[in-house]
UniProtKB/TrEMBL annotation:
Region (Disordered): 366-388
Family indicated by similarity: Belongs to the membrane fusion protein (MFP) (TC 8.A.1) family.
GO molecular function: transmembrane transporter activity
Record-linked InterPro entries: MdtA-like_b-barrel (IPR058626), MdtA-like_BSH (IPR058625), MdtA-like_C (IPR058627), MdtA-like_HH (IPR058624), RND_pump_MFP (IPR006143)
Protein location: Cell envelope
Protein name in the entry: Efflux RND transporter periplasmic adaptor subunit
Keyword Signal: yes
Keyword terms, alphabetized: Signal
Domain annotation Multidrug resistance protein MdtA-like beta-barrel: ranges: 208-298
A Pfam family annotated for this UniProt entry: Beta-barrel_RND
UniProt organism field: Gluconacetobacter johannae
Amino acid sequence: MTHPRPSRAVLLAAGASLALAGCDRKAAPPAPPPQAVGVITLRASPVELTTDLPGRTEAVEIAQVRPQVNGVIQKRLFVEGSDVTAGQQLYQIDPSAYQATYDSAHAQLLRAQAARVTAQARLDRYGPLARAHAVSRQDYDDALATAREADADIALARATMSGAAVNLAYTRVLSPISGRIGRSLMTVGALATVNQTSNLSVVTRLDPIYVDVNLPATRLLELRRELKQGRLSRAGADAATVSLTLEDGSSYETQGRLEFSEVNVDETTATVVVRAVFPNPEHLLLPGMYVHAELQEGVDPTALRVPQVAVTRTPHGDPVVMVVGADKKVSIRPVTTGPAVGTDWIVTAGLKPGEQVVVSGLQKIHPGDTVNPSEVAQTDAPQGQKAG
């Protein structure tokens, strides 16, 4: 049986079809490889939490030097801006009138004492005579009354002399406290009066010195809540320490300690006054200076640190990170950030230890993409690193 041979046209058509099919298979692009990204694996570590707040220095003691008697200032006995001690004489007010008053009171005392001697002698004589009925009972009673009046006159004279001595001593104007004295507001020859509105000078104690800062009430409540829940622990002996940064950016070399926090919240600012006390032996800090105080609040023993470059924001401003799952797929994760530690954020919610967070290659990936993660070394916070 003979079979018809296919025509040449049919063979050519079949060959063209096979050629076109081969071209189609060659044009299909290969699947792209997973995008390489850098990740860090989260691990919990203790971080000391701090708060950096502006504050003002306040003197521990301020005493106004005021006259306690009237008189003309005869001498000024201090150098303006120098250190003085408690009880050191600062001014001399003209004592002549007060010295005369004291001398007169002293003379009155001597006179009263002499009259008492005479009255007592008379009473001593009248006693036996009255018992012998040689003098009347009335004469004896008069002698007794005179002696008692003499005692009262002595007490009155002593009180008058004591008051005169106090006023005389007040002509020596003394420093009420130890500290640094400012400029003199009255000159020699000026009349000082007890009721004058201005003081003579001001003495300020500079060592130690206070620093008052205003802590937001919401932050105070948050700290207390975290301590109560156990998420924060107190930093032991360092829990009450405070560090200072001065206006020129330099650090004050000595740490202070927390003295107290106000019991009331300021209604206008919603803040609580927190006071720290600092040693100031060289008087580097002066009252009224603007400083930055770093308050040590506690320790978060299980803090999760995420590099700030890994945290992006949604159009609404919410912080998010890209997380790589076990299947190498990327998902977007909302997080809650807390204070900063160097170039990292402390993440307080949304992540857990062991998860991988993308830190590089973020601009090349989207949620749902499969990636090829490689671990990036996370720089550990130096010892003593603080979050604030």
